[in-house]
Amino acid sequence: xxxxxxxxxxxxxxxxxxxxxxxxxxxxxxxxxxxxxxxxxxxxxxxxxxxxxxxxxxxxxxxxxxxxxxxxxxxxxxxxxxxxxxx
Length: 87
Description:
It is a single chain. The chain is an alpha+beta fold. It has two helices and four strands. It has helices at 31-42, 51-60; strands spanning 2-10, 13-22, 62-66, 78-83. Strands 2-1-4-3 form a four-stranded antiparallel sheet. The longest helix has 12 residues, at 31-42. The radius of gyration is 12 Å and the shape is globular.
Protein backbone atom coordinates (compact mmCIF):
# COMPACT_ATOMS: atom_id res chain seq x y z
CA UNK A 1 0.00 0.00 0.00
CA UNK A 2 1.22 3.48 -0.88
CA UNK A 3 1.22 5.97 2.01
CA UNK A 4 2.55 9.49 1.54
CA UNK A 5 2.40 12.14 4.24
CA UNK A 6 2.53 15.73 2.98
CA UNK A 7 3.01 18.80 5.18
CA UNK A 8 2.80 22.46 4.18
CA UNK A 9 5.37 24.28 6.32
CA UNK A 10 5.64 27.96 7.18
CA UNK A 11 8.06 29.32 9.81
CA UNK A 12 8.91 25.70 10.80
CA UNK A 13 5.27 24.98 11.67
CA UNK A 14 2.79 22.71 9.96
CA UNK A 15 0.10 24.81 8.29
CA UNK A 16 -1.75 21.95 6.54
CA UNK A 17 -1.19 18.24 6.21
CA UNK A 18 -2.70 15.23 4.50
CA UNK A 19 -2.10 11.51 4.18
CA UNK A 20 -2.36 10.10 0.65
CA UNK A 21 -3.13 6.38 0.40
CA UNK A 22 -3.45 4.10 -2.63
CA UNK A 23 -3.53 0.35 -3.13
CA UNK A 24 -0.55 -1.52 -4.53
CA UNK A 25 3.14 -0.65 -4.57
CA UNK A 26 4.47 2.83 -5.20
CA UNK A 27 4.98 3.47 -8.91
CA UNK A 28 7.60 6.16 -9.49
CA UNK A 29 6.19 6.87 -12.96
CA UNK A 30 2.92 7.95 -11.28
CA UNK A 31 4.52 10.15 -8.61
CA UNK A 32 3.43 13.33 -10.41
CA UNK A 33 -0.17 12.05 -10.30
CA UNK A 34 0.21 11.37 -6.57
CA UNK A 35 1.52 14.90 -6.08
CA UNK A 36 -1.33 16.40 -8.10
CA UNK A 37 -3.90 14.67 -5.89
CA UNK A 38 -2.04 15.60 -2.69
CA UNK A 39 -1.83 19.25 -3.72
CA UNK A 40 -5.50 19.26 -4.70
CA UNK A 41 -6.38 18.02 -1.18
CA UNK A 42 -4.15 20.70 0.37
CA UNK A 43 -5.50 23.39 -2.00
CA UNK A 44 -2.02 24.44 -3.14
CA UNK A 45 -0.30 24.55 -6.55
CA UNK A 46 1.42 21.38 -7.76
CA UNK A 47 5.24 21.64 -7.79
CA UNK A 48 7.43 20.71 -10.73
CA UNK A 49 8.72 17.19 -10.09
CA UNK A 50 12.22 16.51 -11.40
CA UNK A 51 14.52 13.50 -11.22
CA UNK A 52 16.31 14.76 -8.09
CA UNK A 53 13.02 14.79 -6.18
CA UNK A 54 12.35 11.18 -7.15
CA UNK A 55 15.88 10.12 -6.17
CA UNK A 56 15.59 11.83 -2.76
CA UNK A 57 12.23 10.21 -2.09
CA UNK A 58 13.47 6.77 -3.17
CA UNK A 59 16.75 6.97 -1.23
CA UNK A 60 15.80 8.95 1.88
CA UNK A 61 11.98 8.44 1.95
CA UNK A 62 11.36 12.20 1.96
CA UNK A 63 11.65 15.23 -0.28
CA UNK A 64 11.24 18.96 0.33
CA UNK A 65 9.75 21.19 -2.36
CA UNK A 66 10.79 24.84 -1.92
CA UNK A 67 9.48 28.03 -3.53
CA UNK A 68 11.75 27.48 -6.55
CA UNK A 69 9.96 24.21 -7.33
CA UNK A 70 6.61 25.93 -7.90
CA UNK A 71 5.63 27.86 -11.02
CA UNK A 72 2.91 29.77 -9.19
CA UNK A 73 3.47 32.05 -6.21
CA UNK A 74 3.05 30.29 -2.86
CA UNK A 75 2.46 31.69 0.63
CA UNK A 76 4.36 29.01 2.56
CA UNK A 77 8.03 28.07 2.93
CA UNK A 78 8.05 24.49 1.69
CA UNK A 79 6.10 21.31 1.06
CA UNK A 80 7.61 18.34 2.86
CA UNK A 81 6.61 14.92 1.48
CA UNK A 82 7.44 11.68 3.28
CA UNK A 83 7.00 8.12 2.01
CA UNK A 84 5.52 6.08 4.87
CA UNK A 85 5.02 2.89 2.85
CA UNK A 86 8.70 1.91 3.14
CA UNK A 87 9.02 0.87 -0.51
